[in-house]
Structure formats: structure tokens, C-alpha cells
Amino acid sequence: MTHRWVALPLCVFLILVSACSDKSNIEPDADEPAYFKIDPNTAGMIAGNVIFKGKRPAPKIVDMDQDPQCAELHQQSVYDDPVSVGSEGSLANAFVWIKQGLDDKKFEPPTDPMVIDQKGCWFGPRVLGLQVGQTFKVLNSDPVTHNIHPLAEINREWNQSQSPGAEPLIRKFSRPEVMIRVKCNIHNWMHAWIGVVDHPYFAVTGPDGAFQLNNVPPGKYTIEVWHEVLGRKEEQITLVRAGRSETIIEFKGE
Amino acid sequence: MSKRVFIVLMAALLGVSCTGADDAYPIGDPVVIETPLGLPEVPVPKDSPLTADLIALGRRLFNEVRLSSDNTVSCASCHNPALHFADGLAVAKGIGGQLGTRNTPTVLNAAYSVAQFWDGRAATLERQAGIPITAANEMNQSHEACVTKLSADEEYKAAFEKAFGPGPITMSRIEKALAAFERTLLSGNSAFDLYKYAGNKNALSEAAIRGLQVFTDRNKGNCATCHVIGETYALFTDGKFHNLGVGMNSSGELTDMGRFNHSGVKSDRGTFRTPSLRNVAKTAPYMHDGSLKTLPEVIAFYMGGGNSNPQLDVEIRPLMLSAQDRNDLLAFLDALTGDIPSGEELHGRKR
Questions:
Q1: CB–CB of B210/B219 below 8 Å?
Q2: Are the beta carbons of B252 and A158 separated by less than 8 Å?
Q3: Are B176 and B125 found together in one domain?
Q4: Would you say B27 and B167 are in contact if contact means Cβ atoms under 8 Å apart?
Q5: N or C end of chain B: which has fewer CB within 10 A?
Q6: How confident is the model over B289-328, as pLDDT tens digits?
Q7: Is B297's CB within 8 Å of A163's CB?
Q8: Does the domain formed by A44-252 have CATH 2.60.40.420?
């Protein structure tokens, strides 16, 4: 008799525990929210340029000797150039996003994936943006094994091995996190950064240092620019109906 | 307790503890199997001593295609002696070319395993032997059909009676014979064994000696923590079950829960028995799902720290290995290729 009284709550408990943890490997799906509809007649654009002034750190030669198969993929030396500055100081690989001002508007994640490729024992692109819930696709185009490891702190941290010719990995991030450092557990010179944002207003600057955030509803915003070496900068912006805001964000070197 | 009651009781107990054991006790003088250098004495169950007739019968059954429903597949089809008793495939191919879900392990040295199969679901070689026969994608034949087919063959009837004495062919006799034969499939005497257990310091190359160092150093390869090397012999396994994150799909979910499938214990999710590494250079591809094609890929997999998941073993973490460390480790794994049993290892010595 006594046995049964112990067994029943125990069973219930065990069922609960296993039910709760069953999907421990899968990011929880948020409830389908009511998505914000952008009004094309009032939406505007936040554009700008990110520039760097001062002495930039010299690019460093990457030593791939630890994996000769990687070294063999390159005819010439590979340079790691985190502060990549073009003509007139244009700064590439800066991540720009609206940090504040969208209140609690919810935006539908785009259906096309963001792709990162491991090629030449190097991540491409080095900096990429992703919307919460958007597919993150990881390719291995190399003849060597990689083990991609996003060192997420707010999202779940994970790492996964990809042999040569292995299928792409398909993942999602469930929470905003700017930025997540990504490394390869096997090749310590490989770095990338992912910005996960819960709306579509983010961009990564190209060699011309320019960015454009399109279809932004009118309002007052804080935009943030992040750079892996130079840090973060904020800028207040007011966007009028169907307006266009131009801004220059400047980082200074030594 | 009267004597009668006692006997009845004992008989009942025996009946319970060895259901199906019927009269499958081998007759004839037990033989001793020569222990190759680097291995311990092969364990033999009390109720099935090894005899020459039993082993010979087991060898024959191992190659017997009539154990499969369409007479095309034998144990040796997948555990091919020419391929170090494995099949060289990622996952096993059974009757009608059907694919399984797991990689075929070699049966060399299986006699030493604490439990059979990647997930250890069969406790003994005897228990294991009946399972592939009925598996729909392997041999796909009922045990009754096996017995009927073999019983129709006078030669088999004679061979079974020679091994077990008078009586019908039974599944239990078939299993014991197969298991007995497998206990002779021992492979040792590798370059590593000569170096480590015979004091032949020239048996290993410089690279392989450094590789042994990488293999055992907890701060380098940390391999020997699970692939154990003992003082007097090496099985290259701790006989335990570990989760390395092998068999993860592109969304990061484990596709085979391994030991958890039959233990139901949560911490067993995705765990598999540490395989021996003897002859490993000859038994590609690797891992329970055959997902890693080469040994360099296996080493790179370990360098990356496996695939993260809630049950990942604490001993699996990213490794810092130089290009030379990797080459040395490879040279060491190559030095684990041993002698293949020729069938002459029966000593004929009486116990």
C-alpha cells in the first residue's frame, strides 16, 4: 500500500521531468506573435558611413602551420585584418543596428537563410547579422574538418564538427545577442562575429563603410555601431515620416 | 528438507536460470586458445567450454548463408575475414541490399567485450549471435527456420552431434557454436604489443612512440582515459559507454540514442561503448554510424571537442595538437594492426 503512494507521485514527477527536458536540444519556439506591418508610405531610411581616423593596426600574417592542409589551400600568405580601412577611412565589418526605439514591435523573420562558409580555413563573412528565428546555415567548403563554435552567452552555446563534404548545419538563435563571437575549435586563427537582432534593421558595412537600414517606421532611435576591435558607438536619430537620415560615425585610432 | 524436494527445487532453479540451455553442453576435451601478445586470456563461460568440434562447427555456421531467409547473407558477409572481420561500409548492408543504421564492428577480440553491440544490449556472444539472424534488414530469418534448414542437412546433424552429443539441433547449440568460434578470433601481437609487452624497443617508429605519448598524455590526446592501455595487456577500451556527440544531424539533434534506447536512463542518451582500437587502421569508416571516413577525420573530430549536447562526456573537450602530434598519433594508431587469426591457434592442449 505504502509503495503505491510513493510510486504515483514519483511517476508523475519523472514524467514531468522528462517532458520538460525532452527538447533540451532544440531552441524553444516563441509563441507566434502578431507581426508589425510596415507602412511603405511612412517608412524611411537610416543611412550612413562608418569611418576610421588615425593609425590602423597593421594586418597580421596568419600562421596556418598547425594544419598544413589549411596552409596548402593558399598560394600567398593570409593576413588577418580586423581593422579593414578603405580609401578616405571607410571602415568595413562594422555591425550597425537599431538598439532602441522600436518598442515592442515584433517582426517576422525572413525565410532565406544567412550563410557562413568555412573556406580556406577562414570564415566568410567575418561579420554577419541575423534576425531571431532566421535560419543560420553553416557550410564547410574545405577538405579539412572544422568545428564551429558560437560562444553565445544569451543564446545556447554549441559546437559541431563538420567533416569535409559534410552537409550544411542548420541552426537558429532564439534571443537577441549583439555580438556572438564564433570560433573554430580546431583552427584557433578562425574568427567570426554574429549579431542577432529581433528586427530587420541591421547591416554590416562593406569596404565603402556605408550602411542602409531600409523601411524603418518613423520614430526616435538609438543606433549602435559595433566593431570587433574599436568597440561600440551610439547615435541618436530622429526619422520623420518617409524621411531619410544620413549620419557619419567615426572611430578614432591612436 | 527432504532429498526429493531439494532435487525438484534445484531442477526448477536450473530450469529458470538457464532457459533454453537444454542439453547444449559441448562434449569432448576443452582446448586452450593461445593468447596473442598484448591480450589477456580469453574468457570462456562455464557452461560452454571450447572444444575443437564446437569451434569447427561455429566456423562453419559463421560462413553459412542458410542462416538468412534467402540464403544470401552469412555472418561473414558483414564480418568479412578479408576485411578484418568488418565490411568497410558506413552502415551494414543486409539481405536484399538493405541498409542498417549502424557501422559493422569487427568481431576480432569481441570475446573480451563487457557487452556486445555499440550500445551493449547483448550481454554475451551467445545472446548476440541470435539477433542478426532475425533482424529484418540483416538476415531476416526466424530461429525456427534456421533450425529446420540445418536439420535437413545430414552433415550438419552429424557436426552438431559431434560437438554436443545426441540430440536435435537447437538455437542454443547454434549460438554456442558461433560464440565459441568468435572466441578464437583474437588479434594481438601488433608492433605496439612487441614494444610494450615484449620489450622490443625497435618495434615502434620514433613517430609512433611519440604518438603513444600523445595518446596517453591527459593534457594532449587524453585517448587512453577511455581506450585503456594496461600494464600487462591492452584492450583499448574501458568497457564503458560515453557520449561524444557522434551521429548529430544538421539541426544538432542526436539521431541514435545508443544505450538509452534499452536502459531508459537519461544520462545514457547518445552513449556508445568505447570500441577497441586494435586493427583500427584496417576498419574504416569509423564510429557507430560510420560517419567519419578516415583516421585523420577521427583525430580532427576529437580536436574539435566532439559535438556539444547535454550528455557530452566530461573527458571530451577541444584538444591542442600540433601538426606533428597528429601525425604521430596516426603513426601510433597504425601500429595497432595485429596478427589475424589463421585458424591454427588451437593448441590442442588439454585443460
A1: no
A2: yes
A3: yes
A4: no
A5: N
A6: 999 999 999 999 999 999 999 999 999 999 999 999 999 9
A7: yes
A8: yes
Chain segment B156-169, per-residue pLDDT in tens = 999 999 999 999 99
Query: Per residue in B97-107, pLDDT tens?
Result: 999 999 999 99
d(CA B118, CA B259): 8
Instruction: Enter the C-alpha cell of residue B37.
Output: 601478445
Domain span holding position B155: 3-187+345-350
Return the half-sphere exposure (C-beta side, CA atoms, 13 A cut-off) of residue A20.
6
Q: Which residue of B has its CA nearest to A162?
A: B301
Residues of A in contact with B291 (CB under 8 A): 163
Q: What is the ipTM of this complex?
A: 0.87
Which position has the grid cell 595497432?
B336
Per-domain residue ranges of chain A:
44-252
Q: Which of A159, A168, A170 sits opposite B307 (nearest CB)?
A: A159
Nearest-by-CA chain B residue for A69: B323
Instruction: Please give the full DSSP string across B59-99, using - where no structure is assigned.
Output: HHHHT-GGGSTTS---HHHHSBGGGTTB-SSSS-B-GGG-B
- Residue B152: pLDDT over 70: yes
DSSP state of B343: S
pTM: 0.90
**What grid cell was written down for A87?**
580609401
Contact A21 B292 (CB under 8 A): no
B300/A170 touch (CB, cutoff 8 Å), yes or no: no
In the 8-state DSSP scheme, what is residue B202? T
Per the DSSP assignment, residues forming a β-bridge with B71 are: none
B322: contact with A, CB 8 A cutoff: yes
Query: With 0-12 CB in 10 A as exposed, 13-18 as middle and 19+ as buried, what is A88?
Result: exposed
Domain count, chain B: 2
Confidence of residue B347 (pLDDT cuts 50, 70, 90): very low
Contact B244/A at CB under 8 A: no
In single-letter form, the type of residue at position B239 comes to G
